[in-house]
Amino acid sequence: MEKSPSIVNLAKALKQFHASVGKITKDATNPFFNSKYATLSTILEAIKQPLLDAGLSFTQFPTGQNGLTTVLMHGESGEYMQCDYFMQPLKNDPQAQGSVISYMRRYALAAVLGLNLDEDDDANRATHGAANPQEAAVKASTVAEKPWLDKNSKKYDLVVERLKNGTTTISQVAQFFKLNKEVRAELQGIVNETAASN
């Protein structure tokens, strides 16, 4: 991450932004993981006015090969924070590149702006106690919390199918599953074989 020498005004503006942005609705479903997510257009619509009210703006642009740079700026002071995000698409074609850029834009914005993209927990938090959002984020991303991807499962077959048709990558799969060396090597072999045949 890069930033201006001072981010005092940017931090104050982010505080104002967080007070007004609220939770962002997950309006689409990922059939691969049977989970909901917020589309880029939904995120952009939800943050547009709160960003303007706080005097913030952002820009995102492709960086190098398979990278995306996101810059968050405070208009009045010129302070900024910038981060780069990289992801390798499975195929080297326009559709795969576009999908990866869209995916990176969503998640980079969520990270830089600290957006609440969580699904409704059906009152579990109220019933079992409020969780610290930072602890919850760490817990959700901890490898120990992910299930192993078993070669003899329907999920594995679905992963293989999606790798072959270019709708997912190994790094995306690894965000949701633990992969042992054997499974990772087999998946990489499938990716390599698919890339060689295209």
TrEMBL record:
Domain of life of the native organism: Bacteria
Pfam families for this protein: ERF
InterPro entries: ERF_bacteria_virus
Protein name: Recombinase
